[in-house]
Predict the structure.
Amino acid sequence: MASVIVVGAGPAGYAAAIRAAQLGATVTLIEKEWVGGTCLNIGCIPTKAWVRSAEVFSLVQHAGEYGVLCETPRPDFGKIKARKDEVVSQLVSGIEQLIKANKIEHLVGEAKVLSGKRVHVVGEGIDVVREADFLFLATGSKPRTLPIPGADLPGVLTSRELLSIESQPEHLVVIGGGVVGMEFASIFSALGTSVTVVEFGDQILSHLDKDVSKRMQLLLKKKGIEFAMKTQVKFIEADQSGFKVVAEGAKGMMEWQADRVLMATGRVPSLDEGALTAAEIQFEAGGILVNSFYQTNQAGIYAIGDCNGICLLAHSASHQAVAAVEHALLQEEPEDCIVPSCVFTLPEVSSVGMTEASCKRSGQVCRTSKFSFAANGKAVSLGESDGFVKWIANDEGELLGAQILGPHASDLIHEATLAIQNGMTAAQVFHTVHAHPTLSEAVHEAAGGLLGEAIHIAPARKRK
């Protein structure tokens, strides 16, 4: 019977521990802080609980448009936070029960990797060294910090601290227009906070197709969010009203007042560089170096999830975990998989595979098709007709990528993921019957647009 040690109990760590236990290994799972890691405790799940509160508040505000009359609503931030905490607690408890049910030894303490496959664990009432046949490092990631004067002032927060605030800010300045920044900007704006986003680049959500991010920025502007693009924050200072954020852009120097500032400048792998060096495990600033099986340069030691820097997404971490464990214990080689990504703004955005720009950079002939939710019966009946579905295909009609901006984008993207993963063509998707009236029909019609056969897309005007 093989023995396994897993360091870190986030989406990669607990998935690795459970899969190893399922395969008959004796497993020790070490976590210094929370079961569920960043995602469950201070990331994916708590933010989505807040997103839901923001959605409900926005819906009630517009209830009259649906023929429902109610008193003027207002957000109760204390109850919003309490619900978020309850959601997190329930899910953490569920993971703890799974660990127990799979007879996994769970040690709470700080883990330091030693030479070989040994780990020193120090915690309350614990000071032990454990050794195993296989060691899986799943130490996650942490917020990226920038050397901005004043960034360390109390009240200048990362996403972790922002999720713990007790009262709703009146004015929030968000530094960074990536996924974390845009989700929080969308949440607080929907709840009535005045939000300003300061972004160094020329595009929010830079991993997305440009037309998707541009449309998203336009929609969020209409919701009241202010954007300062191509703008660099110079310093932050405390004043009587909270904070003054001073930046420089194309139009010169600018400043904003805020009672909270969010530093949303990305995430980086969380690495104990001293321990990794001592254990002779190779790493770079971007993460622990691994091969296609997620093996490090040391035999029997794997690095999975955010700490290897390959893809800082929870579902990618879980997938890597299972693949690495099965390679270690069953000698199975992981298959290449594409990974979808989602942004839980209001409205949602999702993407998978190539963007139009990346397709063109690859030298392939690129065909695209877009279908607007404004022409989708279900979206219009929901009152959520902003956005579109966009497919990217090659000249043979093979689907290469998809981008979705609109209602339930995070759910719809999986049809595209399944199609691309299995090498399907636009014709195969379009010739699959989709139920009516559903949001999925937008995916269907966009595929038909690649063929020139979509029923609900007007034919292109011929040039005279």
